[in-house]
Design goal:
The protein is of the alpha+beta class and 247 residues long. 34% of the residues lie in helices and 32% in strands. The strands form 2 sheets. It has an 8-stranded mixed sheet with strand order 4-11-5-10-9-8-7-6, sandwiched between helices. Strands 1-2-3 form a 3-stranded antiparallel sheet, covered by helices on one side. A hairpin with a 2-residue loop joins strand 8 and strand 9. The longest helix has 15 residues.
Amino acid sequence: MPSILGIESACLSAWPAVGTVHDGAWLWRFAHGYSKRSNSFQSLDPEDDEDAERRIDYLAALSVRHGIAPVFRVTPLAGGRVLDALDRAGWSTYEESRVLAMSLEDCAFEPAGDVRFFNPTDPRWYRAQSTLSQSTGKTVETLKILLGLIAPEARGVVAYAPDGTPAAAALAVNAGGIGIYLNVVTDRTKRRQGYGAMVMRAALRWTTENGARAAAIQVTSDNDAAIRLYESLGFVEQYRYHYRSPA
């Protein structure tokens, strides 16, 4: 199974940002406010926690300058002095998520239903995903920019209902041999009909066939239905992360 750093690195490659700033093993990302993962900063090495207060202040000010809220993404790679500095500054904790992973060795995912694959920048995928997630016009424009920045091989996946309308969608990325799955969404009127499992099995099959040896996905801890789905496919929790912002 990949290490925490391996999974984090794959996730960062799979979901890019418009702008990045490196400060040692710390990474600040900006994407016009689209998703906290691409509009936050974090540490990728628990040993790199010196001068934490100054670095937090610097990257928080950078966020404000770019019109986004200062957000620190706390993973197990955040060192003790980083956590102490956030505590002293009174940064509040919210939105815990789980990172699940599985080996793809000797796995087979049989095709089922009407599932189609698209280049992520194909309007047939991002329009389906945007409609299912009920995204606004500005959000869709930012999504299109980010999709065009994905460097690893990727596919947009859509599962269709019998009437030809999109029922579920997902984005599959093969990031250095780790399959990463993003933007997974099901039509609210078609939930519990198997479309989420259908689109995920297709996404897993595509990454497996394209050389991925492991898979990872992030899900908020309060999304019980999604966690049950992913666990039924073979995913197992590896670690958790949360966000912190100034009170």
